[in-house]
Amino acid sequence: MTFDAHAIAKDFPILDRTIRDGKRLVYLDSGATSQKPNVVINAESDFYRLHNAAVHRGAHQLAEEATDAYEGAREIVATFLNASVDEIVFTKSATESLNLISYAMGNAAPGNRYHLKSGDSIVVTEMEHHANLIPWQQLAARTGATLKWFSVTDEGRLDLSQINSVIDEKTKVVALTHQSNVLGTINPLDAITKRAHEVGAVVVLDACQSVPHMKTDVKALDVDFLAFSGHKAVGPTGVGIFWGRAELLADLPPFLTGGSMIENVTMESATWAPAPKKFEAGVPNMAQAVGLGAALTYLTGIGMEKIHQHEIALTKYLLEGLSAISDLRIIGPKTTELRGGVVSFTLGDIHPHDLGQYLDSQGIAVRTGHHCAWPLTRKLGVPATTRASVYLYNTTDDLDALIVGVQGAQKYFGR
Amino acid sequence: MQLDNLYQEVILDHYKNPQNKKLNTTFDAQVHHINPSCGDEITLNVTLEGNTVKSVSWDGVGCSISQASVSILTDLLIGKNLEQAQVIADSFMHLMQSKGTEKGDESLLEDAVALAGVSQYPARIKCALLGWMAFKDASVQALAKQA
């Protein structure tokens, strides 16, 4: 089956609506959140209409069906990542997943492999989204550990030249993004995982911008923990994934405690169920997990490799089109080498908010601002950028509309 | 086009030629305000002479709406007493919250009525108010210094 983005777009009902006085919707903000196909919308509403009950509880048929649907979704996620089913933890968001691991490490008692103390270090990078920076800043503050980071070069790549001093014997955890949500840069992981494991540190990967867009095999990546969000992968909001290697999850203390996550409880104390239940306190976001299962099944049906190739082709087209516009500066790699379909840029003296507002008047949805990566945009000397991000349903028509829109904005604000 | 309600000529003029955009070296109070949703930043200095706004100077980065709004503010408020400034600021705040239903009192707000269109764009109201919030903060601090 060949890849047909126009046909795929028909699966997404929102792409049929119009914007601002009848303009066709040109949605180029999938890096913030993706649109949803009918199969996902139906899976979520079918759960409520037909199967809704609290999972893992209740002696009735609905509870059985709900549990089957929820655990079935877990199997789909495991297959999607080439992981084991007990390694998949449902959270409410990728942000919660990253807080889960950082808080859980903070809960580790002396003697536990995750215990952090003064003298230890946590390593991040300068291109992290706030969600993979602030939890680690906070963990460092709570434990007395030192926060260190890899800086970003002018080309928008990680500077790994000092890798052996940034990651050293004191390092307990290295947390980084797979793909920058601002620059589009895909970080090469081999040298980092090798060095981290050499010193006994674990590697936490923020895969929010990569899992939805390329085939992800956690075994091949050789990372230890991984987080992504459902809503960026054509799934519902309110569901995220936290993956960890089974032997590592076994030693990790819980983050949230309460119902479902226990083995035994007395008035004085409690013991924990094995992973993944240990990390799923309370009645989970069941309908959203089921919706995510439908989303990943949908993406798999199309083919992650085909989706990735489509996005690379779109990114190449967009980079070439934007580069031809005077006063336009691309922030991030200029070629598609180790780069995903997120393209940030500035446009002369036109502020991104004003550009975004003009593009909106043309039906074009982009993101503007610091993209929740303020330290990065500050480092790059651009307080704000305009960001276009593509997904499987985008076409070169969308990119042509953006390019015409950017040129229109130059005329509009140049008056 | 509806967008023209937002980007009136007056706004683009103030954006290109901002008034009082050079921080005075002396001041009674200096504040730094940030709009965390978009990264706009402003530093604003206020000097009072008794009850009168003697000078307002500023520097910052931001969109045309936030920059024009503070530029207009300086033109409007320099020379006014604090009671008059309060009346103007309240009127501007009211206009921003009007959701496009009001045009603004031009005798009071002068160039600031050009920002009326902002009230139809909820995401941009904070941009227009950045400088006004900074002024409010700075004038309170400057006044406290006199006590």
UniProtKB/TrEMBL annotation, chain A:
<dbReference type="InterPro" id="IPR015421">
    <property type="entry name" value="PyrdxlP-dep_Trfase_major"/>
</dbReference>
<feature type="domain" description="Aminotransferase class V">
    <location>
        <begin position="26"/>
        <end position="402"/>
    </location>
</feature>
<dbReference type="InterPro" id="IPR010970">
    <property type="entry name" value="Cys_dSase_SufS"/>
</dbReference>
<dbReference type="InterPro" id="IPR020578">
    <property type="entry name" value="Aminotrans_V_PyrdxlP_BS"/>
</dbReference>
<dbReference type="GO" id="GO:0006534">
    <property type="term" value="P:cysteine metabolic process"/>
</dbReference>
<dbReference type="GO" id="GO:0031071">
    <property type="term" value="F:cysteine desulfurase activity"/>
</dbReference>
<comment type="similarity">
    <text>Belongs to the class-V pyridoxal-phosphate-dependent aminotransferase family. Csd subfamily.</text>
</comment>
<keyword id="KW-0808">Transferase</keyword>
<dbReference type="GO" id="GO:0030170">
    <property type="term" value="F:pyridoxal phosphate binding"/>
</dbReference>
<keyword id="KW-0663">Pyridoxal phosphate</keyword>
<protein>
    <recommendedName>
        <fullName>cysteine desulfurase</fullName>
        <ecNumber>2.8.1.7</ecNumber>
    </recommendedName>
</protein>
<dbReference type="InterPro" id="IPR015424">
    <property type="entry name" value="PyrdxlP-dep_Trfase"/>
</dbReference>
<dbReference type="InterPro" id="IPR015422">
    <property type="entry name" value="PyrdxlP-dep_Trfase_small"/>
</dbReference>
<dbReference type="Pfam" id="PF00266">
    <property type="entry name" value="Aminotran_5"/>
</dbReference>
<dbReference type="InterPro" id="IPR000192">
    <property type="entry name" value="Aminotrans_V_dom"/>
</dbReference>
Automatic annotation (TrEMBL), chain B:
<dbReference type="Pfam" id="PF01592">
    <property type="entry name" value="NifU_N"/>
</dbReference>
<dbReference type="InterPro" id="IPR002871">
    <property type="entry name" value="NIF_FeS_clus_asmbl_NifU_N"/>
</dbReference>
<protein>
    <submittedName>
        <fullName>Unannotated protein</fullName>
    </submittedName>
</protein>
<feature type="domain" description="NIF system FeS cluster assembly NifU N-terminal">
    <location>
        <begin position="7"/>
        <end position="127"/>
    </location>
</feature>
<dbReference type="GO" id="GO:0016226">
    <property type="term" value="P:iron-sulfur cluster assembly"/>
</dbReference>
<dbReference type="GO" id="GO:0005506">
    <property type="term" value="F:iron ion binding"/>
</dbReference>
<dbReference type="GO" id="GO:0051536">
    <property type="term" value="F:iron-sulfur cluster binding"/>
</dbReference>
